[in-house]
Specification:
By secondary structure, the chain is an alpha+beta fold. About 40% of the residues lie in helices and about 20% in strands. The protein has a three-stranded antiparallel sheet. A three-stranded mixed sheet has the order 6-7-8, with helices on one face. The longest helix is centred in the last third of the chain and has 23 residues.
Length: about 230
């Protein structure tokens, strides 16, 4: 499967400063100098069609980059597919960031920087009937997308935030961790039961008050406190 990645380099500020010894000499003679800050931004763009297939026939003209509503010039554009990633991974030297090896060897291939992806799974609010389907789609996403230099981390909320898998490029390891998340029952069932109980008690209290039954005010206050406690969970 082809995996399309677009690297866009955007010059956020026009270059207006002179360089070289001559410019420094002129500035010194005139008694002033100027510092101009240049921000170069690399934007990784993953483009897929409605069927989830990568779109690979794109050019710089297909993109518009804005900063605070102002259009910025795209100064460099490179299209990378899965094969480019794999070649870069094969050339990589242990302990040396991806892309540095090519620069040292004089290879004109573009520098490929790591892409960090964090998968966050809200175990407490994931409906039990949706859990299997959702986690299956996440596993499919990992299988399709976790190709070096992509690095993925898996984080789950199970009453508290827990790191299930630190950053790795091992797709099988990430898929295994996600598969294990399906065994967690979560707190959705308990919260739904508590919510149903509160709704039923509201209806009972309303019926008692409509019939003029005593103790309605006290029961109302108690129920109100329980509703607030439920909302804070």
């Amino acid at each position: 499967m082809v995996f399309a990645v677009v690297f866009v380099v955007v010059c956020c500020t026009p270059l207006a400063a002179e360089t070289g010894e001559e410019a420094e000499s002129v500035a010194s003679d005139l008694g002033f100098s100027e510092d101009v800050e240049i921000n170069l931004v690399n934007i990784d763009v993953y483009v897929r069609d409605r069927k989830g297939k990568p779109v690979i026939d794109l050019t710089a003209e297909d993109f518009v980059v804005r900063e605070d509503g102002e259009i910025r010039e795209i100064t460099n554009f490179t299209m990378l597919d899965e094969q480019a990633f794999r070649r870069a991974d094969e050339r990589a030297v242990p302990g040396v960031p991806v892309g540095v090896t090519e620069a040292v060897q004089g290879d004109p291939a573009p520098v490929i920087r790591p892409t960090w992806v964090v998968l966050y799974i809200d175990q407490e609010n994931l409906h039990p009937l949706d859990r299997t389907r959702v986690l299956r789609r996440v596993r499919e996403f990992v299988t399709e997308s976790l190709i070096p230099p992509v690095q993925m981390m898996v984080v789950a909320f199970e009453g508290s935030l827990k790191v299930k898998q630190s950053f790795t490029s091992d797709g099988r390891q990430v898929v295994s961790v996600i598969r294990g998340l399906s065994k967690y029952s979560g707190g959705w069932v308990d919260r739904e039961s508590a919510r149903t109980d509160l709704v039923d008690r509201m209806r009972d209290l309303k019926a008692e008050m409509s019939h003029g039954s005593g103790g309605g005010a006290k029961g109302n206050r108690q129920l109100f406190q329980e509703v607030i406690a439920y909302a804070r969970e």
